[in-house]
Design goal:
With 99 residues, the chain is an alpha+beta fold. The chain has one domain: D-amino Acid Aminotransferase, Chain A, domain 1. It contains 3 helices and 4 strands; from the N terminus they run αββαββα. It is globular.
């Protein structure tokens, strides 16, 4: 990211360190507190759902290191295609006001 302007940090380029760019991520989709990754251990699933709750968002994509489960990042605009039909159903219910 390049920040243009006259204030602090102007003209500074910040980049993700090479170590974190080389991680293999697994994205967990959370819709209304429900995680969509059947192979995810319960503790990580609970943590992803809690993060979505704390972020006050009904939809969240949580990127975890595929090998270690370490947190990499999160987005309120995840690639919903990764969740398959189950996510589509959950979204349909959420949009229709059902929980």
């Amino acid at each position: 990211m390049y920040r243009q302007g006259a204030g602090p940090g102007a003209g500074v380029s910040t980049r993700t360190p090479a170590a974190s760019r080389s991680r293999v991520a697994r994205t967990v989709i959370v819709v209304d507190g429900r995680t969509f990754d059947e192979q995810l251990p319960d503790d990580l699933s609970d943590g992803c759902a809690r993060l979505a709750c704390l972020a006050r968002t009904r939809i969240l994509g949580v990127d975890l290191d595929a090998r270690t489960g370490a947190f990499i990042g999160a987005s309120p605009r995840p690639d919903l295609r990764l969740g398959g039909d189950a996510v589509v159903e959950a979204l349909a219910h959420a949009l229709n006001g059902a929980r």
